Amino acid sequence: MATTLHLLIPGLLGPWPVELMVPRPTAPALEWLLARADVAEMPASMDAVLFHLFGVPIPAETDLPVAAVTALADGGEPDNGWWLRADPVHLRPDVQGVLLVDARALAIESVEAAALAAAFDQTFAADGLQLHVPCPDRWYLRLPEDPGLRTYPLFDAIGRDINPLLPYGPNVRRWHTLLTEAQMLFHSHPVNRARDERNQPMINGLWLWGGGVLPAGAQAPAAELYADDRLTRGLARLAGVAVSPVPENASDWREVSTHDTDSLVVLDLARYDRTDGDPLAWVDHVAAMERDWFAPCRRLLQTGQLAALHLHCGRGRRYSVPRAARWRFWRRNRPVI
């Protein structure tokens, strides 16, 4: 019996800034799949796509509660608190404004995260704030109620001027003051003095985002889940289902999956290529996914071993390729860009 495969691939289809000379990748199987797909509207952001797939309502006027969900994946326990991601970042003045560098480039050690969190907790104890640092790259604030703050996702701020993307809302003045104080505290901390001496970028800011309470529940979008990212793993825990590591390729997926059930696989390879302004890395990543996933999936569709393939690639669209798509000869291949 054939199965259905959902591939969720952040960053696969851009979009890329017009000023960048982005080469067209060689991906005939992907172009074949896009040409023969039925296209449906989906939420624009990949985080919202995951909430949608897991049946979690997407709030219209507030943040997606990413922090509360990823806290589950980082070992937290379900509660009714209001959670905010408070991720460590490097803020660098530039002619374009103040640019943000995320933790991927900071190589933060656990002892550094713990020391900065301890200094933060001591400074802001009177405000009832405590930093939770379950891992060096993801930090959290837990609050008793909605702080009156709305935010922009960290992903949207990477490599950009943060000034148009700062938190907003009825209590924004208090939080802007707090963030400025935290920057000054971190800047003079021994952790950052030592990093500066080693020519490492300072951990001199926090990026607040993804605020909210834990959703009431979730339902798995497929019987088998394969993902390494924290949001998918948190949603899976909320839904009470297991999630396995991502297989290396479609052949490995076929070996470990039950062929008569549906699967969701999250491929994170190209997630940051656009934000990092690295089109050559994107071309390489598309080529790798062409070899490991798109070409094998095309063969599985053509031989009837795959009932349908759903490509969730962002940009507000889902590309669904049914088994019968192999007969759509009149549709010309669609370029990836």
Essential attributes:
six-stranded mixed β-sheet, five-stranded antiparallel β-sheet, Alkaline Phosphatase, subunit A, globular, 2 domains, alpha/beta, 20% strand, single chain, 337 residues, 10 helices
Q: How would you describe what is shown here?
A:
There is one protein chain. With 337 residues, this protein is an alpha/beta fold. The chain has two domains: 3-57 and 216-327, Alkaline Phosphatase, subunit A; 66-212, no CATH class. 32% of the residues lie in helices and 20% in strands. The protein is built from ten helices and eleven strands. It has helices at 28-36, 46-53, 66-73, 110-123, 154-157, 172-187, 190-197, 230-239, 250-256, 279-302; strands spanning 3-8, 38-41, 82-94, 97-101, 131-135, 138-143, 205-212, 224-226, 263-266, 306-312, 317-322. The strands form two sheets. A six-stranded mixed beta sheet has the order 2-11-10-1-9-8, covered by helices on one side. Strands 3, 4, 5, 6 and 7 form a five-stranded antiparallel beta sheet that branches. The longest helix is centred in the last third of the chain and has 24 residues, at 279-302. It is globular.
Topology of helices and strands:
Layout: E1 3-8, H1 28-36, E2 38-41, H2 46-53, H3 66-73, E3 82-94, E4 97-101, H4 110-123, E5 131-135, E6 138-143, H5 154-157, H6 172-187, H7 190-197, E7 205-212, E8 224-226, H8 230-239, H9 250-256, E9 263-266, H10 279-302, E10 306-312, E11 317-322
Parallel strand pairs: 1-9, 1-10, 8-9
Antiparallel strand pairs: 2-11, 3-4, 3-6, 3-7, 5-6, 10-11
